Amino acid sequence: MALTETAVAIDGSGAPALEATLRTTALNGAEDSPVTNIRLVVKNSSGVSYAFVSGLVTFYDSAGVRCGKGYTKADALAVGEAFETDTPGIRFAVPRQPGE
Predict the structure, then answer these.
(1) Each residue of 83-99: pLDDT tens digit?
(2) Which residues pair with 75 in a beta bridge?
């Protein structure tokens, strides 16, 4: 999906559980100067409160090549509640294509 769209995580029954929206818009990372922190908003779109939420955030370029991944977490997330967080340690860099 495009970086401007909302990503949806589903629960074990296939129902939407979490929604994530990217806050960082400057993703001009390269192999020699990667973006090292990305902000996003995560919302509990399920009907269940969570005591702990964690997950891997992964980005792919238009060719399907992974260009960044990071980990995010939060304690206690009520139904309908959202939190803004970052992905510490992420290294977002668009890989060079052959011939570049």
Answers:
(1) 998 877 777 776 655 55
(2) 52
